[in-house]
Specification:
By secondary structure, this protein is of the alpha+beta class. It folds into 4 domains: 136 residues, ibrinogen binding protein from staphylococcus aureus domain (ibrinogen binding protein from staphylococcus aureus fold, Roll); 101 residues, no CATH class; 124 residues, Helix Hairpins (Orthogonal Bundle); 122 residues, no CATH class. It is 36% helix and 22% strand. The chain has 13 helices and 22 strands. The strands form 6 sheets. The chain has a 6-stranded antiparallel β-sheet with strand order 15-16-18-17-19-22, sandwiched between helices. Strands 5-6-7-8-9 form a 5-stranded antiparallel β-sheet, covered by helices on one side. Strand 2 and strand 3 form a beta hairpin. The radius of gyration is 34 Å and the shape is elongated. It starts with a helix and ends with a helix.
């Protein structure tokens, strides 16, 4: 991703209108993100500051983010020293991904104070620091002790120091660059080592402008200086990236009115998905391991069931030996008799140590053993298949759940004895609506979707009426989707099918078959696992999962 020093330079130019604005409110939605509500140009502007290892950035955001009930220490320090202050200065340190905010505020007794916020947007080393006027650290998002970082100490009470970096040249202070390039290195690497704030994406574009390096540099810097709040999102070979200017050789560019809008669009849901992924990594690993174990178990059970096919032969041997007992005597290794079912000759192996009666009883015992084993194997196969299907359903749900759903899924898995309870929970009555997600179809009809098994059962068996239409992706794990109308339009039926295909294992696939039927035809078998149903009298429609379209139906519902 190309949030490099050049991009930082451009976003800082865009954000200059915030200077002289008052910081009215500060929130911290997660451990890496701070949102400041700043009153500027007669409007409340939400400035997002992120020190996320993968999504570090700054920019105005329109996204509504959830906030924790208990404010963390870093937020409390920000509110004490920054909230209510005036943002007087925004600057970029050199051409690096480090930004400094200067805020003028007053103490509780009215004395004027100056505070600084440093945002270091440097991948896994990203950080956010609050200092006083003398750069003494008041608090930082990530503490670095001398034991963990020998280069600098980032703890309250220490003096803030900029990150140690290689000596590079600020491209905005240069007219040419050829004399600063190490000729012993590959050109792209040499430029990366010499110029501050250049990313591989920028270097690639610059070198495409001219064969002469200095002319290419001058031409590139002229382009950066003439950009006017017009930005691009680049989609190249199925890999999304972004930059603040049009780059040569890219296709499918998306235009935005501001860099902040570009960042909002690009990072939308990315941080949330990453957060969910981190919180459910242990579950995913555990469930995948269980699934592999069940798959191996299923193979063995099928082999065992195959072996039980000999039971009928053993029963026949027992019958034939009993009816031909007069022909047998102890010490025989086998006997050839006539099978009176088909008049064919059959050679039956015998144990020389056993009497004729004991040989017959041996085959009857083997028959009964295999008969019992078959019943057990069939039962185990059905239970193992059901568990595999259930686990795959949970794994599918982990792809699109919300943070509120994680505990519910953990509790459900603990109840199914698939994981150990993480902590004891009191039996609480579920909320009236269980935070069900609703969508508004093209014809303005409401569609309910379950994101986990608890919600699926609630939507299907509690929320919906018997004459409502129920949807589910055919023969694969997926959400229960219900149209909340008894006589929906064809357009709504198509939209519900698209939603059902998206919230299924076919989420990233092509055309998907989706079954739909009335709720009265959907039943939960007694003793079955959560979310499992049988249904009949269904119809099937083919649709293509479309994430953007599904999201638009969700936003349509939220904005109605």
């Amino acid at each position: 991703m190309a949030f490099d020093g050049l991009f930082t330079h451009q976003i800082m130019k865009e954000l200059q209108f915030l200077t002289t604005g008052r910081i009215n409110k500060i929130t911290q939605p997660d451990q890496y993100t701070v949102v400041m509500t700043i009153r500027a140009e007669r409007k409340n502007q939400k400035l997002l500051l992120s020190a996320h290892p993968n999504f570090a950035r700054i920019g105005i955001t329109e996204t509504t983010l959830e906030n924790p009930f208990h404010p963390p220490m870093f937020l409390r320090v920000l509110r004490k020293h920054i909230e209510g202050g005036i943002l007087t200065h925004l600057e970029q340190i050199g051409n690096d991904r480090i930004v400094k905010f200067t805020i003028r505020n007053t103490t509780e007794i009215g004395d004027p104070i100056t505070r600084h916020i440093y945002i270091e947007m440097m991948g896994k080393h990203s950080n956010m620091v609050v200092t006083d006027a003398d750069n003494k650290i008041l608090e930082c998002l990530k503490h670095l002790t001398p034991n963990t970082n020998s280069a600098r100490t980032m703890m309250p009470g220490f003096t803030y120091e900029l990150p140690p970096t290689e000596k590079k040249f600020n491209p905005y202070t240069l007219d040419t660059i050829s004399e600063h390039i190490n000729p012993e290195l590959k050109l792209e690497k040499a430029i990366l080592n010499a110029l501050e704030g250049f990313s591989p994406l920028a270097i690639k574009h610059m070198l495409s402008l001219d064969t002469d390096l200095d002319k290419a540099f001058v031409s590139f810097m002229e382009q950066t200086n003439t950009v006017q709040a017009q930005s691009f999102q680049i989609i190249d070979q199925n890999k999304e990236d972004f930059y603040f200017m049009s780059l040569k050789g890219t296709e499918n560019e998306k235009y935005f009115d501001s860099l902040s809008q570009l960042l909002d669009a690009f990072y939308k849901d990315r941080a949330h998905i990453e957060k969910i992924k981190n919180q459910t990594n242990d579950l995913s690993r555990h469930l995948n391991a269980l699934n592999q174990k069940n798959q191996k178990k299923l193979i063995k059970l099928i082999q065992e069931l195959e072996e039980t096919k000999q039971k009928d032969q053993f029963n026949l041997y027992g019958e034939l030996l009993t009816s031909h007992m007069y022909m047998m005597h102890q010490g025989m290794s086998d006997i050839e008799v006539t099978n009176y079912y088909n008049n064919e000759q059959v050679v039956i192996p015998l144990d020389k140590r056993k009497t004729p009666s004991e040989n017959a009883q041996y085959y009857y015992k083997q028959y009964n053993k295999l008969k019992t084993r078959k019943v057990h194997a069939e039962q185990q196969i059905n239970e193992t298949k059901a568990e595999i299907e259930y686990i795959e359903g949970i794994l599918n749900q982990l792809q699109y759940i919300k943070t509120d759903d994680i505990d519910a899924i953990r509790n459900e898995l603990a109840e199914q004895k698939l994981i150990k309870p993480k902590y004891k929970t009191q039996n609480k009555k579920p909320s009236k609506d269980l935070n069900i997600d609703y969508y508004l179809s093209r014809d303005n009809e409401t569609i309910a979707v379950g994101r986990n098994n608890l919600q699926n059962e609630y939507v299907t068996h509690k929320l919906a009426r018997k004459d409502y239409i129920w949807f589910h992706a055919k023969d694969m794990p997926g959400s229960h989707v219900v149209i909340m109308h008894d006589d929906p339009t064809q357009g709504t039926i198509e939209d519900a099918a698209i939603i059902a295909s998206y919230f299924s294992k076919a989420q990233e696939g092509a055309k998907t078959e989706v079954d739909f039927t009335e709720i009265k035809n959907v039943h939960k078998p007694s003793g079955s696992k959560p979310g499992f149903v049988n249904y009949f009298e269904q119809q099937t429609v083919n649709v293509i999962p479309d994430a953007a379209y599904v999201q638009s139906l969700r936003e349509k519902y939220l904005n109605q």
